[in-house]
Design brief:
362 residues, Rossmann fold, 14 helices, six-stranded parallel beta sheet, 12 strands, alpha/beta
Length: 362
């Protein structure tokens, strides 16, 4: 079987989780003796392949163009939506960030409390642009032969919110990076501080995390690159005196940070599930995650989950995680995360491709 893995043309200059998953998928498929090529293109040439696999419908115009190119080659199209309904996030976060930019902490706290009271009403009126985007995403998803989701939650959301009930879904959970875990025979590290790894952006919600921890006497390390200078400035405005920002680190340096961190906190507005949360769990850190994506499906009852709009809840969750005893090597969370492998992910992809080649769906 020859498979073309398609990611967006901007992959090199704007890397992200979708690109990482596409890369890991291609590597794992090759390990299963599948002839898999990876291309970053919005107009891929899929001639000569048996099936093409497109990653991401979050930019529907681009995904539509990619699928059109696949259709022109006359082969089946598999799509990983990497999708969550973020219309509420787009509607609410401009209000939240205007409040976060304020001068007085008491006013910020009151403003966020009022925003939480009216959040549902705002989210129900996302605007015509958001509604059009959802329709376009739905149209793209309905045209594929098989959809590969990272969780049952994502599959359900795509089927119900996008109205794509008749699409055939295969769930292929993401995995811990192959470099994670460390040597079980190494002495237990001395853990301290809070680590947050991820692109610095509104979705990842670092500014709210920093507000929540601004007066907590703990070292907070924010690792990630910012494409949005305005949001990066907001994060620095809300940072406490023991906060440090690290834009880029090597894989080895990041592994070392995760081995030393007491807590990894990423109060995201909707991760599926957040690869860094899985890696931090594999390295033995306690995990604080957002509760609006598919994080619970991966981490179960072994992590703290928070409302991304509630700094008080974020603070309390991080403090509980800091006060908890260190995790035991090979505990339930380590076993749960360790069972997730890219080889198993590739096996599920192979099933999806075989299903797509049957071609009865659309």
């Amino acid at each position: 079987m020859r498979v073309l893995i398609v990611t967006r043309a901007s992959a090199a200059e704007r890397p992200g989780g979708d690109v990482v998953v596409a890369q890991r998928a291609a590597e794992a498929l090759r390990a299963l003796n599948v002839d898999a090529d990876l291309v970053a293109s919005d107009a891929p040439d899929a001639r000569g392949y048996d099936v093409a696999h497109v990653f991401g419908i979050f930019e529907p115009a681009r995904a539509r163009a990619q699928l059109a190119a696949v259709r022109a080659a006359g082969i089946p199209a598999v799509v990983s939506p990497i999708w969550w309904d973020r219309s509420g996030f787009f509607a609410v976060t401009p209000y939240a960030e205007r409040i976060l930019a304020g001068r007085h902490l008491s006013r910020i706290e009151r403003g966020l409390a009022r925003l939480r009271d009216v959040e549902n009403g705002i989210a129900r009126r996302p605007g015509r642009g958001a509604e059009r985007r959802l329709r376009e995403q739905a149209d793209v998803l309905r045209t594929c032969d098989v959809a590969v989701t990272a969780s049952e939650i994502e599959a359900f959301a795509c089927a119900t919110r996008l109205g794509a009930q008749h699409v055939r879904y295969v769930v292929a959970p993401y995995a811990v990076d192959e470099h994670g875990g460390g040597d079980a025979n190494e002495p237990a590290p001395v853990r301290s501080g809070v680590l947050c790894v991820g692109r610095i952006e509104s979705l990842k919600n670092q500014a709210m995390l920093l507000l929540a921890l601004h007066d907590v006497d703990v070292e907070v390390t924010i690792v990630g690159h910012a494409y949005d200078a305005r949001y990066a400035a907001l994060c620095r405005r809300r940072a406490g005196r023991r906060t440090r920002f690290v834009e880029r680190v090597s894989r080895a340096e990041l592994n070392a940070m995760m081995r030393r961190a007491a807590v990894h906190a990423l109060p995201s507005w909707g991760d599926l599930p957040g690869l860094v949360s899985l890696e931090a769990a594999a390295f033995g850190a306690r995990v604080v995650a957002g509760g609006r994506g598919s994080e619970r499906e991966y981490l179960g009852p072994y992590a703290e989950y928070v409302d991304p709009l509630d700094p008080g809840a974020i603070r309390a969750a991080v403090l509980r995680a800091l006060d908890a005893p260190p995790r035991a090597p090979g505990d339930e969370l380590a076993r749960r995360v360790g069972a997730l492998t890219w080889r198993a992910h590739a096996g599920r992809l192979h099933e999806a491709y075989a299903l797509a080649l049957q071609r009865p769906a659309r």
